[in-house]
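Pilot study result, target chain (333 residues):
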Amino acid sequence: MSIPTLNAIRRNFPDCELHALVRDTAAPLLQHHPALNRVWAVPRVAGKARLRKVWPIIRALRAERFDACVDLAGNDRSAITTFLSGAGERLGAIQQNGFWGRRFCYTDRVTPLSRDHHEALRLLHTLSPWKISPPASLEIKLYSDPALPNPFFRNPAKPTVICNLGAAAPKKQWPVSHWARLHHLATALGYDLVYTRGIVPREVELMQEFQTLVPGAKLLPTVKLAQLLVVLQSADVVISNDTGPMHFAAGLGVKTIGIFGPSSGKRWFPIGVENRILQAQDCICQTGTFVCRRTEHCMIHITPETVLENLEHLLPAKSMRSAVNLTTDAKPF
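Predicted structure:
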C-alpha cells in the first residue's frame, strides 16, 4: 500500500536518494521497485525488540544523514525508528493509540484521512505537509525478481487459476466447503485450479480439510515470498480471501477476485488492472475479534456460483482454451 507514496516522492523529487525500511520477510515486495535506490530489511519477531540485531541498522541509517523520514507503518516501533533515524524532518500520522512519547518522534504530525478512503490514499496523505497532490491513479505495481525460476509449470491447455485458501484470521476465511464446491464447478468448465495457503498451523489444517473434500487437488509447494511472486505472476486469475497474496497478484498485473468478510472492501480492495471484490453483508466483527461471532458466518452467503460467475467474466474458459497452442512442450504441474 506504500507504493503510490513512494512513486509520489520519486515524481516530486526525481533526483533524491529514496530508501525504504521494511521487515525482512516483506523486503521482496520492494526489492526490485524502480522508485527506490535501496531497501533495508530489518529482522523482526512479533513481541521481541531484538536490539542486538536492530541497533547496527539504526546506526547505519543515521550515518546516511537523511533529510527526511516518513513513517508509513504507524506503530510504536516505526515511530521510534523514525526518531532514531536522525532525519531533520520526520512525518507521521496522528494515532489514537500508542505510547505517550510518540508525538515527540515527529516534526510534523498529520491528521489521517477517514477509514472510508482506500488505505493507499491514506498513506499518501502522510505527505500532505509537502503539498504533494494525489496522482491520477493509485495503481500499485509490484516487480518480481527476474532471476528467479518459476517452480510452477502450468497446464498450457487450460486457463490457470491460483486459489489462496488462507487468511490472516478465521473471520476472513471463506468456508472450505465453498472452495470445494467452486473447484468442482470450475474444473467441469475446463479451468485448472491450483491451491496455496500460508505456513501457520491453522492454514495447514485448513488445507488438509480441503484435501479430504477434494482428493487429488493440485497444491503449490511452500515457497518464500520472492518466489511466490513469480508463481502468482504466471496465473491467469487469482482467487483469494482478503489477505496478502490477493494484493500481490493485483500488483503483478494478474486479474484477481477478492473474497471479503469483515474488512472494508472500499478501504482494502486490490488495485490493479482488472479486479473484482465480493463483500459479505451485515458483518458484526469488523474489529477487535479474531474469529466470526455469528452462529452463521456472513461469508457463507458468498456462494461458489457467484465466484464462478465473476471468474467467467474475467476469464471465459472457452475463449481461453481456443487461444492456447496445444502443441507446446511445457510440462503440466
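One observation from the pilot: Confidence is low (pLDDT under 50) at residues 321-333. A full batch analysis is planned for the follow-on phase.
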